[in-house]
Amino acid sequence: MAEPTREPILQVRNLVKHFPLTQGVLFRRQIGAVKAVDDVSFDLYQGETLGIVGESGCGKSTVAKLLMSLEKPTSGQILYKGEDIAKLSSRALKAVRRNIQMVFQDPYTSLNPRMTVGDIIGEPFEIHPEVAPKGDREKKVRELLDVVGLNPEYINRYPHQFSGGQRQRIGIARGLALNPEIIICDEPVSALDVSVQAQVINLMDRLQNEFDLSYLFIAHDLSIVRHISDRVGVMYLGKLAEIGSDTEIYDHPTHPYTQALLSAVPQPDPAGRDSRERIILAGDVPSPANPPSGCRFRTRCWKAEARCAEEAPLLAIPTRFASDDSGASHPSACHFAEEKDVVHA
Ligand SMILES: Nc1ncnc2c1ncn2[C@@H]1O[C@H](COP(=O)(O)OP(=O)(O)O)[C@@H](O)[C@H]1O
Ligand code: SF4
Ligand SMILES: [Mg+2]
């Protein structure tokens, strides 16, 4: 982990993305909306890794696409170094987009099989030739291969000649090509074998220090981001349930959803499990087109009460923990936030 500063490089404010649901072929009528991202706010500090964790379909990739300007928000703001990117001139936006790059989930489908590795890694230079003039590109690409631990002599090979882990190294090299400040990593190791995941995460950790990068690191499982994250945000059905430092989230979670997710994290040491409770997360995630009233987690929450159906909990530091220095004092969107000693299954 790099030493993060307390300067936010990105500020996400009340971000909303609703995908319209339409019916009819000739006269398309909007009959509803998929509330993929519904009022999400967080900061990404310079040099830090913010992990974003949640089950499939909770809106993680949509957040990533909004930050990359690949999707337009329904409402809300994304501030880059304090400036609203929606209000930038096209030239200024192009510079911002250069500084925010992405590494995708699936290294098998995200690399064009008909392009050589050299062309894949060098592709961003076509859009931003100012970073590497034509004559310098091959040298730059060879350097990038070396930086991610691949043999520069592989420059003319094709993606199918590499393993999954090597392909993700190629994806990372492409993400680094333009010397970005921020890399949005959308489940970069989820498609890889467990044995390879740690190698790729270690590489990303090293690159973060070397190039002073800020990472937004998306995963569907808390155990994957633990090693690399300075802070973690837990998402459920388009909203943040809880956000805090790694210690706050892993050792002092106060939201029932985070506690349930942690309960499913394998723990190497089986000692002392007996006194703690194991939480089994029952049922499926409801549809984001028709989320439950009040707290969205209430249909799966073992603590739900009448109030939970009526009143949506705000993401805020629970008052009872406001002046507490135990680690529980961090934002949690639950009316009944409290610590719980869970079995790490
Ligand atoms: N372009 C789209 N049109 C309609 N619905 C979408 C679109 N992209 C994503 N969704 C829906 O938004 C929700 C969140 O998706 P996504 O952000 O991909 O979740 P995650 O990455 O956490 O699995 C899902 O219900 C998904 O089906
Ligand atoms: S607000 Fe209610 S339903 Fe939601 S997480 Fe808290 S206790 Fe569970
Ligand atoms: Mg996704």
TrEMBL record:
Keyword Disulfide bond: no
Record's keyword terms, sorted: ATP-binding, Nucleotide-binding, Transport
Database matches in InterPro entries: AAA+_ATPase (IPR003593), ABC_transp_ATP-bind (IPR050319), ABC_transporter-like_ATP-bd (IPR003439), ABC_transporter-like_CS (IPR017871), Oligopep_ABC_C (IPR013563), P-loop_NTPase (IPR027417)
CDD domains per UniProt: ABC_NikE_OppD_transporters
Any Pfam family hit: oligo_HPY
GO MF, one annotated term: ATP binding
GO terms, biological process: peptide transport; transmembrane transport
Gene3D superfamilies (alphabetical): P-loop containing nucleotide triphosphate hydrolases (3.40.50.300)
Presence of the UniProt keyword Nucleotide-binding in the record: yes
Highest taxon of source: Bacteria
Residue span, ABC transporter domain: 10-262
Family per similarity comment: Belongs to the ABC transporter superfamily.
PANTHER family the UniProt entry points to: D,D-DIPEPTIDE TRANSPORT ATP-BINDING PROTEIN DDPF-RELATED (PTHR43776:SF7), TRANSPORT ATP-BINDING PROTEIN (PTHR43776)
The protein's name: Dipeptide ABC transporter ATP-binding protein
